[in-house]
Design goal:
- Two copies of one chain form a homodimer.
- The first copy, chain A, has eleven helices and 16 strands.
- Chain A is α/β, with parallel strands linked by helices and about 300 residues long.
- Chain A has two domains: about 5-60 and about 220-295, HAD superfamily/HAD-like (Rossmann fold); about 100-215, HAD superfamily/HAD-like (Rossmann fold).
- In chain A, the strands form four sheets. Chain A has a seven-stranded parallel beta sheet, with helices on both faces. In chain A, strands 8-7-9-10-13 form a five-stranded parallel beta sheet, sandwiched between helices. Chain A has a two-stranded antiparallel sheet with strand order 3-4.
- In chain A, α4 (about 85-95) runs parallel beside α5 (about 110-120) and α6 (about 160-175) packs across α7.
- Chains A, B: Its EC number is 3.1.3.18.
């Protein structure tokens, strides 16, 4: 069924039937470090009408507390409990799988992943500390890897380099049973306000290319995080609405979880992407930006 | 049909029916900068028996003349005409496709690709000159890309970084009709003698991940290079034997082209890889290293 534009005719049906709005962040709340127009007022309106608000972000660069600080710095008050980031999801996945305490995790990605892993009591290394490591093949160099690494977590990493690719590849190829976990596989994202940049899907694919293995994906569109979300909020999935700018992560996640779905065109997806015959992911509704709800409410 | 180990019983059948031996380099002739045992004597024996010798390498880091120099430095005399590298294949692909002279090529890879493109009269940039470019997302930076780039060529690149990934992604996503060419998709290779390292398959997959497009592959197992090889050497494919250490590139290439195939276990493939039930690529013959032919001849 094709999507409906959000309008005065259908908005109250959606609004009245939804108890919790799940928002993606990049392309919905902000682009890079710039807030999208009307966001604070929209969130305020939703809270004033008693709606629960949750932020479900695939961007693993930050931890939940770092995201709460980012919201704060943009003038929006958000509790850490309202944030479900894919960095947190990676840590929760290892907890749920009873990751052995003597094993370590190698991280290709940001400080946020390391922070969430440490909060979960898991020993992790890599990430920013390997940002400046270089490889000179002419020196016949050898990368020695830690045999106790039992999982490699890969997320968005603007400091990607050949050392990290080699280290992660060695762990996955040579450590028996080593897990390969992707925070998400977004192709691109608004890492800055001015343009789109390669997302975690780029780094994850690189490791797929060198290991010839496929990862477990813990972020959207996987519904792994939903279990934790349901534990915090006593709302059934059918009374949730997932709001996002990406069809293949946000909208698919909402559909996989049985939520209502609203696509906003303020991020990576254009109306022509949505209506392209090759697209087979149709949200229930679409609109330009979340603040359109202000005019309709 | 499962492979036969090369033996006194079957060697003369192979040897007598073959006029040209096609050798892969990494893992067959050398590992990193170290020659594999017995290689010079084997090549000398083949030449003395009137066999033609060709080197077909997926490693795009060097140009044909740089490979000829590497052979020379290792004490082996090889003419540039005997070398078919995937860097050369990338340049020939663009020539065959009548790449417009006003368009440029962006390179993620080594100097060898740039050199072959220039020899073919094609304007190219990127590669080593972008090795040290850094991206600071906090500065809200913007990468401006050249709208006249009509092809992005991706090969092995130990200097891979986020700038190159962004530049290549922008060209492929935003320049209408921009080609995406992979020199090859080898997962790993012996970039040094001491261990395996992520190969071009890693960098190519990264760009697939960010662009959600699939490349044209010009190296093995694609038989694109065979057309040029046949032009140089007046030998039918059935009288050629492809000798390589990789099932999914070398042996598949040989089979795709209708050559006989010989797997050597001196590189990335082990005997247990070959005999694993999940492997469905069976060479005609296998042996430990090319110098085993010395004992059998």
């Amino acid at each position: 069924m094709s999507s409906q534009p959000l309008s005065p005719n259908n908005f109250s049906d959606l609004f009245d039937s939804v108890e919790a709005f799940l928002f993606d962040c990049d392309g919905v709340i902000w682009k890079g470090d710039e807030l999208i127009q009307g966001v604070p007022q929209t969130l305020q309106m939703l809270r004033s009408k008693g709606k629960k608000i949750v932020f479900v972000t695939n961007n693993s660069w930050k931890s939940r507390s770092q995201y709460a600080q980012k919201f704060q710095s943009l003038g929006i008050s958000v509790s850490q409990d309202e944030i479900f980031s894919s960095s947190f999801a990676a840590a929760m996945y290892l907890k749920v799988k009873d990751f052995p305490s003597q094993n370590k995790v190698y991280v290709i990605g940001g400080e946020g992943i390391l922070e969430e892993l440490r909060l979960a009591g898991i020993t992790a290394f890599g990430g920013p500390e390997d940002a400046n490591k270089t490889i000179d093949l002419k020196q016949n160099c050898f990368v020695e890897h830690d045999k106790s690494v039992g999982a490699v977590v890969v997320g968005i990493d603007p400091n990607i380099n050949y050392y990290k690719l080699q280290y992660g590849t060695l762990c996955i190829r040579e450590n028996p049973g080593c897990l390969f976990i992707a925070t998400n596989r977004d192709a691109v994202g608004h890492m800055t306000a001015l343009q789109e940049w390669p997302g975690a899907g780029c780094m994850v694919a690189a490791i797929c290319g060198s290991t010839q293995k496929e990862p477990v994906v813990v972020g959207k569109p996987s519904t792994f995080m939903m279990e934790f979300l349901l534990k915090k909020f006593n709302v059934s999935c059918s009374k949730m609405c997932m709001v996002g700018d990406r069809l293949d992560t946000d909208i698919l996640f909402g559909q996989n979880a049985g939520c209502k779905t609203l696509l906003v065109l303020s991020g990576v997806t254009t109306q022509s992407d949505l209506q392209d015959p090759s697209n087979n992911i149709q949200p229930d509704y679409y609109t330009n930006k979340i603040s359109d709800m202000l005019d309709l409410s």
